[in-house]
Amino acid sequence: MQILDGKKAAQAIKDQLKINVAQRGIEGKKIPHLAAILVGNNGASETYVGAKVKACEETGFKSTLVRMEDGISENKLLEKIEELNRDPDIDGILVQLPLPKHISDKKVINTISPDKDVDGFHPITIGKMVEGMPTFIPATPYGIMLLLEHYKIDTKGKHAIVLGRSNIVGRPISILLSGQGNPGNCTVTICHSQTKNLKEICLQGDIIIAAIGIAEYVKSDMVKEGAVVIDVGITRVTDTTKKSGFKLKGDVDYENVASKCSWITPVPGGVGPMTIAALMKNTYRSCEMSN
Length: 291
Hints:
The chain is an alpha/beta fold.
């Protein structure tokens, strides 16, 4: 069993971006600028946004953090996004999810300009990805592809099982893995809450992408020997022995599954850092495209 270390792979990407940004500065070119909007004070969201701002600092990007009260109206939020859309200095815009219930995720995502949609959620962005056109790839699926590429995991002809069908992870990664290239050229099966004989299907998987949001759902008897397991899930589980009062668990029962795998991602330290690295790459690309 070997570890797909997202921290190391992400650091390699950020190190290269730092070099590229420094060279842009020497040449007098524009420096990438990411704007993040955080609504309310959700603890997990604070952590995620903080990590993205830190990544900007590490790579030499400029960053702007826009904080809004939990009770902000939907229209006020949309107006702020439109303002950032018009700002020529901003290359990438992300609105940290989840949002308060009175705000529509879809409206927010659709308001972000596709030219600055570095999270890769806009329908136009997704449509281009499906067509194989140049575009921003959704950050988490892109991070998974970059992780497989970094560790030179051969995916050609492999059977990939994707657990979860969300527009953020499950559906995009299934498209990317079935596309041409390496990573890619997989035969992909998408499983979800209505899938029958799930255990039998998972046992066919050379690669398993677990993105269902249920802590330790994937057990050892669902994974065949030598499989590559990518754990996208991250759930806070109560743990009174921890100072924080919780510990982080993935969708995979890591302790019992790891020994059966050829490669596996840890939680934390696997897909999470790669999502941020992918976001940075998308922002850098946006800066290049607009300048």
